[in-house]
Amino acid sequence: DIVMTQSPATLSVSPGERATLSCRASQSISSALAWYQQKPGQGPRLLIYDASTRATDIPGRFSGSGSGTEFTLTISSLQSEDFAVYYCQQYNNWPTFGQGTKVEIK
Amino acid sequence: EVQLLESGGGLVQPGGSLRLSCAASGFTFSSYAMTWVRQAPGKGLEWVSAISGSGGVTYYPDSVKGRFTISRDNSKNTLYLQMNSLRAADTAVYYCAKFPTYVATANKYFQHWGQGTLVTVSS
To answer: According to the model, what pLDDT value does residue B105 have?
Structure first.
């Protein structure tokens, strides 16, 4: 299985600041990477697919980059509704997920 | 608007069985592959099964192969997960989710997710 490793585990950010989340794959996955946002008691919400394509209705402050084994999700200016847990997922093979990064209010 | 509503979770003893359902609406159900993904309490996400739009092809990871069966009834817009020989390690919230494609072997990310149903395996 391809192992996905996210860092940091927790990110403390003030509203309006930029947040940068990292995801590393244990082997090359080309651009077969998705990012999801999950809030307590809810199912995940697709943010980004194909490493850098925003899903429908996702605000422009969310952007994804990377290819191969190193990927980044950037939230340019954090809004109150963005404090949540973020997961990356590879789909070069059958899906595996990272362990998540919690973005909390500083 | 796409809606996915899971049901059927509950408390079951080790070795027992349970069938989950996912009622879909807001899209042409038979045109999309579907999947189940679980999340153990306080943990990350784990993919547990997938099925093509027709229902003719299914996929499982080794952790559930031979114990779980995914199926669908396109006339009822409903996805199912039959879970047998349940173990404590199967305790999780189970989500159904929609692929962006008819086949489950391409673009294996998930556009829409339900709210989940909790399965607890305990004596």
So the answer is: 87
CA B109 to chain A, closest CA, distance in angstroms equals 7
Q: Which segments of A1-90 are extended strands (E)?
A: 4-7, 10-13, 19-25, 33-38, 45-49, 53-54, 62-67, 70-75, 85-90
Question: Per residue in A2-23, pLDDT tens?
Answer: 999 999 999 999 999 999 999 9
Distances (CA, A) of A11 to A44, A73, A103: 19, 13, 5
At A46-90, the pLDDT tens digits run: 999 999 999 999 999 999 999 999 999 999 999 999 999 999 999
* Residue of A89, A92, A99 for testing the chain B interface, max B β-carbons within 10 Å: A89
Task: Closest CB to B44: pick one of A32, A45, A87.
Answer: A87
Spatial neighbors of B94 by CB under 8 A, at least 6 apart, are: B6, B9, B20, B36, B37, B38, B48, B81, B116, B117, B118, B119
Q: How far apart are CA B63 and CA B16, in angstroms?
A: 17
Choose the closest CB to B61 out of A44, A94, A98: A94
| Residue type present at position B46 | E
Residue numbers in A near B97 (CB within 8 A): 43
Q: Could A44 and B109 be called an inter-chain contact, meaning their C-beta atoms sit closer than 8 Å?
A: no
